[in-house]
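For homework, think about our next protein:
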Amino acid sequence: MAPPVSIPQMYVVTRATLVSQLLYASLAWWGYLKADERNRLQSVIKKTMGYGSLRRSFSTLDELRENSNEKLFFLSRYNPNHVLLRLLPQPLTSVITFGNVHIV
């Protein structure tokens, strides 16, 4: 018989399995969902909290999706080795001229 799983371990396992499956590629398809479909997905999270597999303070799927979107953009923008960096526009540089002096 397997040893019992502690509560913090259960949170980690639930986050790694259920939540990651619900959010998989959500950046691509989230905008196509209707409000009732989003609510149905969120109800899965609420039920899981009710079973005790996630903390009561767990974020909503919409918040998690937004955070992952921001994280992806940040990583792709500031990591020189990220595969998406070449697809982003180059940052603008400002040139200020004071007489004959150019400040970049």
User: Anything to note?
Assistant: The helical segments are 7-23, 26-29, 35-51, 61-78. The radius of gyration is 21 Å.
